């Protein structure tokens, strides 16, 4: 436990709510810096706060007007490089700022609760798009803890599945270690209920969080996604090699599938294959793109492009 203090001394500041907000911002900055520290309010904190509030407002409007889109990135079988899954990744083109990375706006959506509407809209779109694909292609959708912890989460997912006609086993939900870390009874029940219907679960960014191996035993997971940080230096770093080898062995022992994330080069692909990673994802196989672009690839299909064909024949 640590002590954090935010201080706001601005000469002549009279408006109470603003004084409090500034003290809050300083406190927030102090907490971000770690334990046992004091931060004084400065104007940059307020600019940053105003900027995030503005972005949150724009995001809310974009969600209401259904302006977000979804791109899909292929996940391929290591051996034949055939597409077995596509991951849905949300995209937002801001009317004046242009494209904004989800790494920037998803955290804002989580702070403001907008992630529930955003996540549901991605889920609906992804299931509808996937229903038109080859029946053995799975669609992976990222879900945030705020979504899972809602009492209506299971019903929402089941309703989307029903309305889009997607077979439940073709939907994989990607969750993060932080969801398991919260160890919430309701979350466990929600995962169990969806799994009983056939929906599968992948643990995203595996190896970066605080998840202990005990979670792999306690939670019914179908897949772990080996984080890009280990893939990046898999060809030159002993530690990364050891970690990947250990994850693959562990997953195999537990009957859980593995996907390596962020594969960019032939060397990484070769190394991961040698380690026995079964499926992979990364720019080396394909960047996220619109669902229509998969169709174009499928249309110009020859023997070499067979791997790209994901539409039903
Ligand atoms: P993530 O779930 O780990 O998704 C993988 C990210 O890595 C994507 O970034 C993808 O474009 C990127 N990537 C894939 N292969 C490569 C590669 O070879 N090299 C490099 N440098 N990057 C690669 P993106 O689309 O910017 O998404 C960032 C994060 O935002 C996602 O990370 C996910 O945590 C979050 N996110 C995206 N869409 C959603 C969503 O619909 N719901 C929620 N809750 N989060 C989302
Ligand atoms: Ca993911
Ligand atoms: Ca990931």
Give a quick set of tags describing it.
313 residues, alpha/beta, 8-stranded mixed beta barrel, two-stranded parallel sheet, 13 helices, 19% strand, globular, binds ligand C2E, binds calcium ion
Number of strands: 11
Quaternary state reads single chain
Shape: globular
How is the main sheet built? 8 strands, mixed, barrel
Structure description:
Helix content is 48%, strand content 19%. The radius of gyration is 22 Å and the shape is globular. β1, α1 and β2 form a beta-alpha-beta unit. The model has no long low-confidence stretch (mean pLDDT 89). It contains 13 helices and 11 strands. It has an 8-stranded mixed barrel with strand order 3-4-6-7-8-9-10-11, surrounded by 4 helices. A two-stranded parallel ribbon has the order 1-2. With 313 residues, the chain is an alpha/beta fold. The N and C termini lie far apart (60 Å).
Strand-helix topology:
Blueprint: E1 4-7, H1 16-33, E2 37-40, H2 43-64, E3 69-77, E4 83-94, E5 98-100, H3 102-112, H4 115-131, E6 138-142, H5 145-148, H6 153-164, E7 171-175, H7 177-181, H8 185-197, E8 200-206, H9 213-218, E9 223-226, H10 228-232, H11 238-254, E10 257-260, H12 266-275, E11 279-281, H13 291-299
Parallel strand pairs: 1-2, 4-6, 6-7, 7-8, 8-9, 9-10, 10-11
Antiparallel strand pairs: 3-4, 3-11, 4-5
Helix pairs in contact: 2-3, 4-6, 6-8
The chain binds ligand C2E and calcium ion (CA) (2 copies).
Ligand C2E binds at residues 73, 89-90, 101-103, 106, 115, 119, 122, 142, 144, 204-205, 262-264, 281-283, 288.
Give me a quick take on this structure.
By secondary structure, the protein is α/β, with parallel strands linked by helices. Helix content is 48%, strand content 19%.
